[in-house]
Amino acid sequence: MNMKLNLKIYGALHFQCLLIIILTGIMSLNSYCQNAELNGTIAGWGTASYSDKLNSMLGIRFVPALTLNFPVKNKFKLDSEISLNTWSSGTFWSGDSTTNDAKIKPYRVWLRFSGDHFEIRAGLQKINFGSAVMLRPLMWFDRVDPRDPLQITDGVYGLLGRYYFLNNANIWIWALYGNNNPKGWEAAGTWPHKPELGGRVQVPLLSGEIAVTYHFRQADFRDYNIIDSIYFPDPVKENRIGVDGKFDLAVGLWFEGVLIRQNGIKEGWQRYLNLGADYTFNLGKGLSLMTEFFSLSSASKAFIRDDGISFAAISVTYPFTIISSLNAILFYDWKNNDLYNFVNWSWQFDKWSFYLMGFWNPDRFQVYPGMNKTNLFAGKGIQVMAVYNY
């Protein structure tokens, strides 16, 4: 137990030191900086909801970002971003206590070297890809909630290289290190001090594009004892492969499929599938409809039938004016017969944005595993949010 605790403390200190080294290196380059720009987002919100009981929340978030550009010879470019994610919130429980939460942490800290057809980016960064929008099997390294106006998600520490061909084909290669906590759909984190490796190849096809993605990591199931009530003292090798495509026909069509193999686990095969479509109708100022079907299942073999979960999702958007629009998102859980409802009326100005949101959901929110602790949309309620971008 002490050894495990010491290992976690060592890992936390290790990455704090790594972050300090990256920050020091970038700031030391600041004296050579050709252009520096400070911008960011300030958001405040209030939520009133009823689940088991009435509760309300007030919160504020501040995400300052510093972008730097350095002079480089020829046609190359060297730039960087340093940003923080800071927030404070208070939750007021009806007839009970008040809880407060506040945190400040690095959001993006990366350095990028790029040219006309390539880029290499190192540090704390956002890596996402795929064709799906609301229910994404390829949500491997982020946890973006489509209902969140701010689209906030943690990044990953790693090195990413991308090369773009003249025909719009592109190749991605990445190596991640130090991302011990679960990310994306992961139920368990990555074994400390074990790198993760992967890549993606995307090519044009007919009226769209198709891609194949691969990722390897060693998972840490030592603190995850639900699987067969068996303790896993060693790293669990995990291989993922995904295929996705998007095509512009009479309607927009896309698909994503992912197959995951976790060695040594009885039900170590996982399958994810998404089929989606969108279309804008010539009604009024344009009514946009998007729909997706998503399924997830685990089994002892790759392609045998087994129980899992499946959702249908529909998103409808209508712009009333150039500054205001209404968006409604519905999720239906086929297994539990639960319906999730979300409506967002937004107003967009040059620097200000305002949102009035309503939701009517089951008390236990199950659409996005791993997001339950920070979910504001369980139960029934409303939320107002004001956002300032500078």
Quickly describe the structure.
This protein is mainly beta. Helix content is 7%, strand content 55%.
Major β-sheet, in short? 18 strands, antiparallel, barrel
Structural class: mainly beta
What's the helix count? 1
Mean pLDDT across all residues, rounded?
87
Q: Could you say how many structural domains there are in total?
A: 1
Which residue ranges are poorly predicted, with pLDDT under 50 across at least 5 consecutive positions?
1-15
Q: Could you tell me the strand content as a percent range?
A: over 45%
Q: Please give the alpha-carbon distance between the first and last residues.
A: 47 Å
Supply the key terms:
single chain; about 400 residues; mainly beta; Porin; 18-stranded antiparallel barrel; 1 helix; 18 strands; globular; disordered N terminus
Structure description:
With 390 residues, the chain is mostly beta strands. The protein has one domain (2-389): Beta Barrel (Porin). The chain is built from one helix and 18 strands. It has one helix at residues 2-28; strands at 35-50, 54-70, 77-93, 98-114, 118-125, 156-164, 170-176, 196-205, 208-219, 236-248, 252-262, 269-281, 287-299, 308-319, 324-333, 338-348, 352-360, 380-389. The protein has an 18-stranded antiparallel barrel. A hairpin with a 4-residue loop joins strand 14 and strand 15. It is globular and about 55 Å long. The N and C termini lie far apart (47 Å).
